[in-house]
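Dear Dr. H.,

I hope your travels went smoothly. While you were away I took the liberty of generating a structure for the chain from your last submission, since the lab meeting agenda had it listed for discussion. I wanted you to have the full record in hand beforehand rather than looking at slides cold. The sequence, exactly as received, is reproduced here:
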Amino acid sequence: MAAANEPARVLRDPLQSQRVDFIELIFDVVFVFAFTELSQRLYGDLTWYGLYGVLVLLLAMWWIWYRLAWTTNRYNPHRPAIRLMIILAMLATLVMSTTMPHTFVNHRLGAVFGSTYVAVEVGRHLWLVLLGGDRHAQMVSVRVLFWATLSAPLWIAGAFSPTVPRVVLWTVAVAIDYAGGMLDFPTPRLGRAGLRSQHVAGAHLVERYQQVLIIAFGETILSSGIEFTPYAFQPLRTAALVVSFTLTLLLVRIYIYRAGELLPEAIATTKAPAYIGELASYAHLTMAAGIIVNAVGDKVVIAHPLARTTLAESLVIVGGAGLFLVGRAALDYATFSRVSRTRPVGIVLLAAAVPATLHFQVIGVAAITAAVLASIAAGNWVSWSRNPRAPLAPQAPPGRR
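The corresponding predicted structure, in token form, is as follows:
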């Protein structure tokens, strides 16, 4: 009897603790390095092409993290077979991160990134198919594996292609990966995976989302500190560090209050927890992208506080906060089925600030951005004090339940 139940033991017991396992936290820590490399890459190439390259790499890295987070939400991370999978994915993520500064210009590094990505995505789901669990879990892995093999040839072809075709091929490849997820991995003769109707360990999933944002915020503080260190507390650089830290602190405050705190309750009370978890994933992806751009802006502010702001510098200083607010608006919707008016108002104000602040001093642009965020944080507090709301997650649309 024990032998017959052995395959099911690799699945997470819904009655057990939903706390994140220590090995999952260590996997997330690897993303400190990944986010650092992404922000360094953008800082060294403040062009539209540089921004687009960082976007493609971020989407690839996030897909690995996101799918693994959902895998450990279904499978028991205490089982040796699952732990081994996490450790191998951790090593692969570290290897991929080391290539990111020159992934698109160095043939060897491009080959390492592309082939490692395929090894993680195909290998992980093949491992889960062989591991089993139960019939439903196994067939979900079959469907995800099918979509991983669809994009794999493009990742491999891009890995061994010149710079421009590599970007194009990898764009199509990452689009296929995300399309598979958004469409619920439809597979010939098998249909959709049915992931949006599955039970999810909501507390576990939210803790993973919050952990990865903590990682992103931590990387921002780390990069600011590293940039500031050589200046030995010069008054101007110290003021720039304070402004940069204030920006980060305001983003943290805006995230937590209140959707960030109430998301677990929203997932627990909705009839479509997996759908809300998926919406929250894309919200956190957008916020993480905003934090990475904000980290680049912080470095610019500390390095050149009195320089006249260029368009590229204004976009990273102001745009990081704006992108974060877009993701935060999506999180509002996932938690309350509505978006706070402060989000679109803040996005409009920040967008208007970009052309208005051209040729301002860099530190002044950062101060204006901080003022807008402070107004949003204050508006949130006033609004909630007058009209507190219980979580009310949206229902999944027809065909996605």
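Two observations you may find useful: The chain has two domains: 2-193, 202-386. The two ends are 34 Å apart (CA to CA).

With kind regards,
E. W.
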